[in-house]
Amino acid sequence: xxxxxxxxxxxxxxxxxxxxxxxxxxxxxxxxxxxxxxxxxxxxxxxxxxxxxxxxxxxxxxxxxxxxxxxxxxxxxxxxxxxxxxxxxxxxxxxxxxxxxxxxxxxxxxxxxxxxxxxxxxxxxxxxxxxxxxxxxxxxxxxxxxxxxxxxxxxxxxxxxxxxxxxxxxxxxxxxxxxxxxxxxxxxxxxxxxxxxxxxxxxxxxxxxxxxxxxxxxxxxxxxxxxxxxxxxxxxxxxxxxxx
Amino acid sequence: xxxxxxxxxxxxxxxxxxxxxxxxxxxxxxxxxxxxxxxxxxxxxxxxxxxxxxxxxxxxxxxxxxxxxxxxxxxxxxxxxxxxxxxxxxxxxxxxxxxxxxxxxxxxxxxxxxxxxxxxxxxxxxxxxxxxxxxxxxxxxxxxxxxxxxxxxxxxxxxxxxxxxxxxxxxxxxxxxxxxxxxxxxxxxxxxxxxxxxxxxxxxxxxxxxxxxxxxxxxxxxxxxxxxxxxxxxxxxxxxxxxxxxxxxxxxxxxxxxxxxxxxxxxxxxxxxxxxxxxxxxxxxxxxx
Lengths: 244, 289
Hints:
- Chain A is of the alpha/beta class.
- Helices cover about 40% and strands about 25% of the residues of chain A.
- Chain B is built from eleven helices and two strands; from the N terminus they run ααααββααααααα.
- In chain B, a hairpin with a 2-residue loop joins strand 1 (about 135) and strand 2 (about 140).
- Chain B: It comes from Antarcticirhabdus aurantiaca.
């Protein structure tokens, strides 16, 4: 069954500030696509459009879930999550005064996700044993790395088909960044997810990415069919690898 | 100091505490969990008290039964009120000052309406448990205090179960921490707050019925509960239901002790005194997270 995302001619911004202009991109079934770009180029804005948090001013966003195609640009965030598209947001956005367990449970709020909730909780604890140790602890009292694990766990609790990840490396120690990126690949394989990951840590992101898009000033500067082509690209070399 | 006097004050204070928990639980939900400064809550308690009185006098309904009959209507009215509040103030981020003024105005509108309909005379209800007392040794427990105590604790326990065991309940606990994140887990913050506010107003109906069991009522009495309800909410730790019960008991005992040993005139000062001490010593309250 196919799970995929498609964006055509997307324009979006905040009031008078235009952030995205004419984005065309797609995420195919079962792949990990990377959305690369430094701060302020529109990665988060694109993910917010995909999850209904920002309404695009122009363009089409469609998602195919289990072979059924939905127009996302008309749906609310709640409805998009209920379809099976979960976002691990930038800054984690946990409920700091709720416990780890309570945060995970809330992740299973969509009606379809409620059955099998305990199995998925067990899966989360297996994937992130640290969360199990801290299950009665308040989310806000944990370290940045642990909070990022919980953000992943909470997103997985909604039984997503497509997982969107916004800047998983932000605020993590370098050693944790590599582990977190490996973990994304591991979760994707275990659950058969389709993944779109926005990341500015280029070298880490391309380790697990099948394809990638480089976002510069709200436009796709380069669309790469594989990691090797990303590395060879001029824009990428100049912006990320420090090669002139 | 006689042991008996102390014991009776302690006992009546604890019983009063159960009723105070029912008074404050609506504030704990609205103010503590939803960030809605519903200063009109005590007016809704008075409205509930008069509805229970009216159903008792006109239809001979037991006040507790009257509360159960009226609670669903209060819930629906509360949802409607939140929708209005959200549309006019909250959605435009004008809830802090204008919202407060709105509820302040509502407090007077409800109070004056009750005055116009029921007048200034004290009203009371009749029920089999109003009058007799349970006596053991030197102590006596009037049923008119015991019944509200048990009913108050029962209401808080039911709400605790609802918040802890259901998805809507957990979402109510989460919604003010990050409404946007609640959308990301598939919940609609506006609908969640609407349900929670309906619940809060329904508890006011119940607390009103308990009030009219405890003592005769008149419309302006609600004001005495503004300070008490907010003091209990803050002392208990804003969002904690266990805190609401414990803080209710502390306030009840403190008031009973003050009335017994210092003088009845000092009773109303106790809640504000407790509030000041809490804010100075432990601003996060007893069970604050």
